[in-house]
Amino acid sequence: MIEERTERQTEQPERAVLAGLSCPSFSAEQAADERTMDELRALAETAGAEPVAMLLQRRPTPDPRTFIGEGKADELRQLAEANEAKLILFDNELSPSQTRNLEELTKCTVLDRSALILDIFAQRARTGEGKLQVELAQYQYILPRLAGMWTHLVRQTAGGGKSPIGTRGPGETQLETDRRHIRKRIDKLKRDLEQVRQVRAVQRRQRKKTELPMVAIVGYTNAGKSTLLNTLTGAGIEANDRLFDTLDPTTRKKRISDTQEILLSDTVGFIRKLPHHLVSAFKATLEELAYADLLLHVVDVSDEDWRLQAETVERVIAQLGAQDIPRVTVFNKADKCDRDTIPFFRPDEAVRISAKTGEGVDALLALIERALGRGKHPVKLCIPYRDGAVLDMLHREAQVGAVDYADEGAVVEAVVDEKTYGRIRAYLIED
User: Fold this and answer.
1) Sign of the C-alpha dihedral, residues 6, 110, 126, 196?
2) Cα 274 to Cα 213: distance, rounded to the nearest angstrom
3) Model's pTM, two decimal places?
4) Both ends of the chain: CA-CA distance in Å?
5) DSSP 3-state assignment of 368?
6) From CA 237, how far away is CA 394, in angstroms rounded?
7) pLDDT band at 237 (very low <50, low <70, confident <90, very high)
8) What phi and psi, each to the nearest 5 degrees, are found at residue 228?
9) What stretches of 14-95 show up as alpha helix (H) in DSSP?
10) Which of 91, 106, 307, 335 has the fewest Cβ atoms within 10 Å of its own Cβ atom?
11) pLDDT over threshold 90, residue 417
12) Higher local confidence (pLDDT), 85 or 253
């Protein structure tokens, strides 16, 4: 599925017309408006296209055949012809039949927002894991759209119907053949990604043994996550001012104080209208968030829509089951905006920084150390040998320090969280 591409910067960019539809019946995630169209423009440029015109249609309900109506579809065709564009990008999600009908009417290639994001992800994937995840997302996107993508798929190769001479006989439709092939490929990709998840589970257990807490950097695409990781760890990740610049996660060690070392992990950025199958395909990567000890939510406060972007990130975090993980809000790019635009915040919950200049980084490191220590209990325990399972649990769930063996049992010094503290209170040794 993922094709080898030459660098698009050396080619003439494809000229594209942007289109969107706003309806009262649409949810906020479905509707197009000026803000989402601006984001579509940025996505188009990231994919290597040159947006040359825009059409934003408002109507009571979407047209079932052409989505925007016959008249607007013809206007879209004229707009594309006038600007010598062969590509039309929709901010909304289109049905397979709507895509086909619009292509017939406009004589242009038509892609919806999901297809455009998938194309960008295909360009960005570098590791084997990333390519597997993108390929799975592409097939999951294509499968329900097969019937509308190629007209030759409706031709019956078995007996009956209007089959051409020479094609009648036992067999199945080309559509059924392609669906069966894609389903087999999806099953194979899911098995491969399940192996990736198992490897990650082993890596998580190894991290538990090293007793290093995991801090995951999350945020809207282009919020400055990779720049922050580079500033903190010198990771040397390429950090450009473009959407979805990071697909493959990077993890680095960082000593934040004389007594505390952490693992810091970058993640793929989130975006409004992120296709559900994309989140599903990247589950092996994104589920790392649910196992993190702390989330750094990076917010680009220089963007006027930062509140909406922050809400989008929070929704995806909840979708991944990581809503209960402690987090610190990092108001990034503070050097690019008026300080009055940054909201009041409690110093123990958020920090104002510039990942590019390094401003506020020391305050961030101090806040990370405090947040990791919040709700932690240093304890000394005596665990009878008959309760060896408790000691095993501590090694999995806590930071275990010294372990000595006495006649009455194992004497353990550890740091535990609130949940574990409630389970081991009976073994506490009073100093």
Assistant:
1) negative
2) 29
3) 0.71
4) 63
5) helix
6) 36
7) low
8) -65, -45
9) 34-47, 70-82
10) 307
11) no
12) 85
